[in-house]
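name: query_chain
kind: protein
chains: 1
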Amino acid sequence: MEALLQYVWKHKMFPLGQLATVDGRAVEVIDTGLQNTDAGPDFFNAKVKIGGTVWVGNVELHDKSSAWTAHGHDRDHAYDNVVLHVATEIDADVATAGGRVVPQMRLEVPQAVAANYESLLSIDRYPPCFAVIPRLDRLTVHGWMSRLVAERLELKTEAIMRRVELCDGSWESALFVTMARNYGFGVNGDAFERWALGIPLQAVARHRDDIFQVEAVFMGQAGLLDPSALPARGRDEAEGDGYYLRLKGEYEYLAHKFGLRPMDPGAWKFLRMRPQNFPHIRIAQLARLYHSRRADLSRLVECASAEQMRGLLATEVTPYWATHYAFGSPCGRSRKSLTQASLDLIIINTAVPMLFAYGRHRRDEALCARAFDMLAQLKAENNHIVRLWSRCGLKADNAADSQALIQLKKEYCDRKDCLRCRFGYEYLRYKPQSAGR
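structure:
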């Protein structure tokens, strides 16, 4: 419960007028200090008044005071500036490495706070703080949602920066990999990212004006031109398919020219997937997008609105794929373009994070601000996370809100990290009677 004790100290969730050291000196907490999440004392630069004397320094907290010695603080000079040691149970005296006796104060987690915290951790229903959501004021909700969407963009920026590093510093290649990953729409995301990282874009760029050659490399590198990847029912038809055979021959030539090795086609998932979401269709769409040069970073940066971004990233397929879902699987003619909902997801998960990350890289605050603005222009995502929060009374008005709620679930709720959550804070303070029902 040490983390909860630190939380109680940080937010002053204790009776301020009844505090005293173990030797009877009155304690007034003027400033709890800045919480330290790294090595060293728990709180820096706290300001406390002990027996009429104001002390400015660090504060350390433990469940039991004997943990001070058990953790080696009595031998660590990093704790020399601790002015107050706080513990739930005082079972030993404490001193610094220099021998100075540190004042100690006993502090318990308030019973109501402990009960509410236990309730948050034990409630099976998601979100566990559902009962307090309707009573939150708009300012609290707006402030926390704004923070969450910023956190989510920061996380995506970290992922993009790792891809830039994997791509030898190429932002264009990192954009392609990010785009490809999100064309997997979750189910095939990992496979698409592996596929994209295996395509030497600098080499393929020499053939970028020829959509057939681009598609040959894209399909070949995905392993989809391997006979073992052909659907069992349509294998004979595929092996007699002129377009398939031409692509296969072209890929073999280009693979020899550039030293390409295809990925294992077994990485792709097809189970319970709608045909329009098959990797073949998504790769054909990416081939058209790459060939058209509309997904270049310079073009993304020029977009001033979500509507312009939609027009830029909208793509279809080559004529063959208008009548096929896979090699040897013909179908009626259809456009097979991304739906607006899917296109918006690509903008939310690719274009917006790329604008933000590139803005950070170039120290261009206007570009970062445009990323936030673009999220506010897009409709909220319609997924189970957003729907669950909506049932609790927290409605997502736009994509910025839905991204905030996704961040909240993945980084806080799923990890039971309620002590870092603003909603969790409100729950610990004001849990309604019905919350435990």
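note: The longest strand covers residues 53-64.
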